[in-house]
Design brief:
534 residues; alpha+beta; 4-stranded mixed beta sheet; 3-stranded antiparallel beta sheet; 14 helices; 51% helix
């Protein structure tokens, strides 16, 4: 794009010379894209060639600007000043200046040295287009360069974009890259290589450059050092705040994980409680059926012995039902609130080991495996320590012992069968019972349990195989039925012969005229088919 500043014009002074007029020399231009100020036409043209931004506007020397005392940042509008204060917490104080003040400061920095002799033709102090000293290497922001590299731009191209846009920011650099993506030299490295500094260090250097000219070199160095230290403190404070934010996020994440884990555990506890309640009810029903079966067996044995004229066995005698206790006080009256009853242990009879094993094998696999493992460990302890009483006694009130040995259907029945007797606080294996007897019974239980589980698994597999075979037979029967139906249809169509034809008939309309012709399948023989072909 062509360089086209708004309101720009050239004039002539002192006859045919082409020097800029005093009015043009005092013109100040501002880039519409980046907001950068230019105090001569040459710098504006160079900015146009570097960035491709050709829209400039002329500003008055009386326009207000705001200069930050802490960082030296120049803000053209109050909105820009407010945004900069939010971005940089160290920017607290701003001085209100004018464009003319900035121009005078610019000209003072570019003022050439005095001529060596009087009457010399040295450059005029107001000649703003006089050649300046060799430019220093450009300075670009490390933060903006890292963002461009993360977006996938090569480093030479990203550095050139930041230099050409005078380090105006990420948006300006991306715009330059988009406009110059096809340039032949876009990937050539810059010479000299630009200096890559943090944005805080660039601001500190700008503050040092904007210091008043009356400062001594020592004062300038001290001010620059203070600015660098302030930038370092700012970076450290930012890092601390970021670390605090990360730590807070980590703690919140940990709390959420703990809360989620607690909710899952509570849900699992509820499920386990429901499962235990269901299993308890099933065990109660199974025990009730077992008691009824035992009573029926006792009655049968009593009847058999009575038929032979023998007295009933002690274990087969009918136990009278206990009489209800007589009320002793007003609280024991029938209308009083019922008191909680103490758990009553049913005195199970002593049955053969094989019968107890058969009852035990009716439990579910996981309960049976747990029972076998626990009773085997109990038998091993008795064998290893035959005289130790603590290994011959178990407390059935212990929740774990009750869950593993008493709760399974037939668990206590098996212990009674191998010699354990019921006591007030649990069960005891008398010293008269040989330790090897219990080990043999446990071995028989383990063998039978393994065989029963294998039989159940085999029965389940047989059941599944039978169901699959039944489904396959049903499917084959359906296929055969469909095949026979299709075969019957083909035979019926073949038996009809060629006499079947398609005939068109007219349907009468409401006006008496001809209607719409439709095709009708005549299932009877057409008489015209019987006529000889002419």
């Amino acid at each position: 794009p062509a360089f086209a500043p708004t309101g720009h014009r050239r004039g002539q002074v002192n006859g045919p010379s082409n020097n800029m007029s005093s009015e043009v020399a005092q013109m100040v231009l501002r880039c519409s894209k980046t907001g950068k100020l230019f105090f001569n036409e040459k710098d504006a043209k160079q900015h146009n060639e570097d960035t491709g931004f050709a829209e400039f506007e002329q500003v008055s020397l009386d326009d207000k600007v705001w200069v930050c005392v802490e960082t030296g940042k120049v803000c053209v509008t109050e909105t820009e000043m407010t945004v900069y204060q939010k971005r940089d917490p160290t920017a607290k104080t701003f001085e209100e200046k004018t464009i003319g003040f900035l121009r005078e400061r610019y000209l003072a920095k570019r003022k050439p040295p005095a001529p060596a002799a009087e009457g010399g033709d040295g450059p005029s102090p107001m000649d703003v287009d006089a050649p300046a000293a060799a430019p220093e290497p450009a300075t670009i922001s490390k933060e903006t360069l890292d963002q461009l590299l993360e977006m996938g731009f090569p480093q030479p191209r990203a550095e050139k974009a930041l230099v050409r846009t005078s380090n105006a920011g990420l948006e300006a650099a991306i715009g330059w890259l988009a406009d110059h993506a096809e340039d032949a030299d876009v990937d050539e490295p810059l010479d000299p290589v630009p200096a890559i500094l943090a944005q805080a260090d660039i601001d500190a250097a700008a503050l040092a450059r904007s210091a008043n000219s009356h400062l001594t070199p020592e004062e300038k160095q001290a001010k620059l050092q203070a600015a660098v230290e302030a930038a370092q403190r700012k970076r450290e404070e930012t890092e601390r705040e970021e670390e605090k934010a990360r730590e807070k996020a980590r703690r919140e994440s940990g709390k959420q994980m703990v809360k989620t884990k607690a909710e899952l555990e509570e849900l699992q506890r509820k499920r386990d409680a429901e499962q235990r309640k269901k299993e308890k009810m099933e065990d109660m029903l199974h025990r009730q059926r077992l008691r009824e079966q035992l009573e029926a067996d006792k009655a049968e044995r009593r009847a058999a012995r009575a038929a032979k004229g023998l007295p009933p066995l002690d274990a087969d005698k009918a136990q009278p039902a206990p009489a209800p206790p007589a009320p002793t006080s007003a609280g024991d009256a029938p209308d009083a609130a019922p008191r909680p009853k103490a758990p009553v242990h049913v005195d199970l009879p002593v049955v053969p080991v094989q019968e107890a094993v058969d009852v035990l094998c009716g439990n579910r696999d996981f309960m049976l495996d747990t029972y076998v493992e626990t009773v085997a460990k109990l038998g091993d302890n008795v064998v290893k320590n035959p005289t130790e009483l603590k290994y011959r006694h178990i407390r059935t009130s212990n929740p774990k012992i009750h869950e593993r040995l008493i709760r399974p259907t037939g668990g206590e029945l098996f212990l009674r069968a191998v010699g354990w007797v019921r006591e007030a606080d649990g069960m005891t294996l008398p010293q008269t019972v040989a330790p090897g007897a219990m080990s043999a019974a446990v071995a028989e239980l383990a063998t039978t349990a393994t065989r029963k589980k294998a039989e159940r698994d085999q029965a389940e597999r047989e059941k599944l195989r039978a169901e699959r075979e039944a489904a396959m037979k049903a499917k084959q029967a359906e296929k055969e039925r469909l095949r026979q139906a299709m075969e019957a249809d083909r035979k019926e169509i073949s038996a009809r012969g060629p006499a079947q034809a398609i005939k068109a008939q007219k349907l009468p309309s409401a006006s008496g005229g001809g209607g719409v012709a439709v095709n009708r399948l005549n299932l009877e023989e057409d008489p015209r088919d019987q006529q000889p072909q002419g």
